[in-house]
Amino acid sequence: MKSITHLVLLVLLAPCCFSQAFTSGNFVVVRIGSGAFPLTAGVAQPVFLDEYNPCGDLVRSIPMPVAVSGSNKRLTLPISTSDYTEGYISLSQDGSQLALAGYDADPGTASVAATSTSSVKRVVCIIDINGSVHTATAISAFNAATVRAAVIHDSAIWVSGGSGGIMYTTLGNTIHTQLTTTTARSVVVSNGQLYATSTAGSLRLTAVGTGLPTTTGQTMVNLPGLPVSGSPYQFFIVNAGSGSDVLYIADDNLLRKYSLSGGSWVSNGTIGVATDKYRAVTGQLTTGGHVVLYAIRKNDNATGASGEIVTITDSTGYNSSFSALTPTVLVKQNDNNVFRSIVMAPAIAAPSFVTVAHKKALAKEAATLNPEK
Length: 373
Known about the structure:
This protein has two helices and 25 strands. By secondary structure, it is mostly beta strands. It has a single domain (2-369), classed as TolB, C-terminal domain (Neuraminidase, 6 Propeller), CATH 2.120.10.
């Protein structure tokens, strides 16, 4: 188990943050707060993506922008004593890009989630395998309400929030289409389908429309067999569409496992007790057929209760209970940060965010090197 003082490490690692590719098998944690000062509820804080190796060693911290630079916006997030739904990061279906939603506001902005979108846009940050940060996607959605999560597929982006439903936009765009009027939390694209957690009415873990919707009037439908009560947050699907699907979800303070059998999701038990407060989970399937999970628990989203990272290796397999497994604590956070969500690091080449001028320069260089073409 490791306790990290991120502020010192950030200073040491800052010069190489954007020149270092992610390492396959590592995981990435959304951290709210620099670690230098106590956090105040509702106030916009700086945000960092901390990359860890499987042993819980901090590899580097990537800061989200706190100043506007050209078309790239700021991205900050608050903490709250009652709302744990902001700042849920996702990995694209092809494993190449991360997506995170936040606010185009200066650190220190009070009641940032209640701000008008006429003054504070809701921003989506896309991070590629090289750690390059792209925050030009800024929309006027979720007015005076929380923005919670985003997911990217190619250049298409879906954004969820605490009011207004799920929005669709594209990379670098500033306009959006409202797909649903139902609020949502964490969003994921898996096997060509958009999924979202929610607590609206009896909705919990849902399929949003059919496939990857881009038009208004979409409906959210609970996955068959799953509970219609509780409080689900982040989730992770293994082998989607293979016929032996397994689902892990941080739900109602516990970590839950389900398997898809006969068209319905069957419970494979839980890990934890109510005071563990599991809020986020990710993982990967190993070559040996085991699932290595990483989860955030004991997170009250407040100074002094900022969470810890645990790992669990599930070797029980498809449709078998994992309740007897014991988590191992990898990282404890310090009192002036909050761990918000967790995801596996990008593992394959991603589209780079190069300018048109850069593309022309590359083409000119290629023509010089290969004149016969």
